[in-house]
Amino acid sequence: MTYLFVGIFLAMMGYTCRYAATHRQELINNSYNGRQELFIAQNTRGKIYAADGQVLAETQTDENGRETRVYPYANLFAHAVGYASNGRFGIEAQSNYYLINSNAKLSDKVANDMAGEKYPGDNVFSTLDVDIQEVAYQSLGIYKGAVIVTEPATGRVLAMVSKPDFDPNKIDEIWESLIEDKDSTVLLNRATQGLYPPGSTFKIVTALEYIRENPDTYDSYSYQCTGRFSHGDDVINCYHGTVHGSVDFARSFAKSCNSSFANIGMQLDRNRFGDTLEGLLFNRELPVTFAYSQSRLVIDGNTTDSQIMQAAIGQGATQITPLHLNMITCAVANGGILMKPYLVDCVKNAEGSSIRQYSPSTYGRLMSEEEAAALSGLMQEVVKSGTATRLSGLTYTAAGKTGSAEYNNIKGDSHAWFTGFAPAEDPRICVTVIIEGAGSGGDYAVPIAKRIFDEFFGL
Amino acid sequence: MELYITELSKYIITLFAALYTLEAFLVFRYPDEERRKGGYMRQNLFMFLVHFSCFLVICFETGKLEYLLFYALQQILLFATIVLFCMIYPKGNRLIVNNMCMLLSIGFVVLSRLSFEKAIRQFFIVTISIITGMLIPYFIHKLKFLKSLTWVYAAVGITALGIVLILGSTTYGSKLSYSIAGLTFQPSEFIKIVFVFFLASALYESHDFLRVVLTAVLAGIHVLVLVASKDLGSALIFFIVYVLMVFIATGNWLYLLLGSGGGCMAAVLAYRFFPHVQVRVQAWRDPFSCIDDAGYQITQSLFAIGSGGWFGMGLFRGTPDSIPFVEADFIYSAVAEELGIVFSICMLLICISCFIMFMNIATRLQNRFYQLIAFGLGIIYIFQVFLTVGGGTKFIPMTGVTLPLVSYGGSSVLTTIIMFFIIEGLYIIRQEEGAKRVKKKERRRKIKYQEAHKTEEEE
After folding, report:
1. Is B379–A38 a contact, with Cβ atoms under 8 angstroms apart?
2. Domain A199-343+360-456, CATH 3.90.800.10 — does that match?
3. If you placed Cys at A347, which of A10, A85, A303, A355 could pair as Cys (CB 3.0 to 4.6 Å)?
4. Is B306–A24 a contact, with Cβ atoms under 8 angstroms apart?
5. Contacts with A11 from chain B: Cβ below 8 Å
6. Is the Cβ pair A13, B7 closer than 8 Å?
7. Structure pTM?
């Protein structure tokens, strides 16, 4: 009897310790937990830094003890860094626990007490690069859209832009009007939360599935493009009705031939295609710690011919976030292995000693090395002789895929997409761009990617 | 300066509590009280240091001197309890008294922090309870007819619980108490002891099938009345005590199996038919999904435990008041938040130390009636601790019972103190049983010796 109860109690103690140790941050960050207020009253909110040390957010206190959260770059980092009043968003939300805590030295805290000041909160160092963010932000201009730039080998996010944007310095003043306007999507971080039809960028996925099903023979694929593909009552047209003539697999991809890909789509095993999509994290949670939306596309035995033809070229019901497309592109660039994307590099206390260091971590393999190499080859061909030739003939070799995703029934209204990486031989940077309603990806999205590549390689 | 004291005191308090706890287990090395004396003295020292440090911090944090005065009164009470007990009952067990005083002092500290008024009321009740309790070992010893009152116990129990059901005031959906002359009683607390006496007297001499069934019927009435009053925590305690005591009395595994089977069935039925049981279970499985209503208490409790960390936030540095009924049902969470998880685990270990001592005393008692009482009271005590702590930490669904000796609540603390002193009485009886046996042995030895000498002389 004694042993029974002692055993139960030991189990209970173990459970409590483990729960408290593993859930501490989550518990404190919960908006129902009033203890946040306690930390906020006791500590000055910490700073947020860019990778190279510029301040992205800091709290300034005037003589009367009034605190203001200041964002020196105003709109530039609106969605990535976020805001900390009227709820929290971005890094302000994700790293709130650290920002409101203070691990300052005890002697410094005592000095603060003497001076009647609050303790300095811990500082958060992000992975964001001010120069790349600036180029991405300027290039997007007045368009609505999003840009996300990452390092495929580590998962570090170098830039994350979403437009339309807002000035986080004025969040308290503009909050009411933003909330009242139900149609306003200003607060939405399009880079991670915006769901778009992927258009032709989805051909990366269709091509991967075709390679998987025909590993030895995909090279000998050929198709005679007449500008349209019809099956029963359903017709798929090539972009602007272009007739591509006789195309092989690489050429179909490089020229983004819709007819050929609809033809490929019809030949795919729909159940296996569904498994591949699951493996690529469609309809699933993404391994990230910031706010995002789940991409949507289900293909299985019940998918109709009409649906598969649309899906193969990234139209129809398919919805994807720029973040997710960027992750798939990163996996291609990184030999098939996906690194978890992350925005926060480390947390340090006010004196600069490390509190928490985040290091690159592997999510897992999304495709085999051979498949990644094959896709990389196809994407290099897009730059060399396909729809992204604006990136050819440079000091670095880029690889990528364009997309012009139609989002309504009016011909020619399309979102311009580009997703790609450079240098193709040893990818160091991966860029995904979407510009809403601009037109073709090759004309509008590729130049933005080029400016970002140029900035990164110091050209 | 203040900060140094509060920061340092966290570790000092935890250290002394840990040392006390260590001593509470080290005494089991020695079989006799004489050799345990050193350990008991050290325990008293650590107890004093914990109590004193806690109130020092409270005075520093609040700047109010009345706490110091209150502390002095508590210190006098606890000191007097230990000294008087040793004088009146030199054969008593000091571990039980020490642990009782330690738990009471933790209760005083936490209650003083939560509400000064409630702490003072608790102090008066404890004083009266201890004075009453001091007489109990004497009566246990003298009143030989206690074992023959079987049906009186059952009648008293059922009547008292029945009166609450019919006349009691409803608090938060459960009928728990009634008031006489401005004093509120919670009879289910006292009836626990009566119930154990009933079972012990019914089962100590014969435990044939008929007897077990008869007690089962009467015990069942107790439980059903409690269920009808919606006091599920107490109903569960009564049920478990019945099943385990029958098992101990008969040594028959079949009864245990039958009891647990019946218990499981009853649990399933309760879940099916009582909506408030379903709510509790749901709040346990996923409290965060119903954080606004049913899950509010448990999530606030988890926030408290989670934010305290290993060494706590420090007294007056947390917000345990955010948990509804913190001073009664969730006192464990308040302890964990402000004094730390390590301290709260030491507190649990002290409870276990009491339980082991109870079981120890029970196994060595010769008198079957007294033995069953010791077992029953031990099980009631430890099971109640398990219910309240397990409920507060999301280990099991919440039942809403108090943590004996620590929680606020007159009936609870009076009952527990009486229980502890009953066990003291039983311990003294055991000592005398032992002494008698020793005497018998000595007498026998003497006779043998004399006989041996006689033969020698004759030769």
Report:
1. no
2. no
3. A355
4. yes
5. 395
6. no
7. 0.75
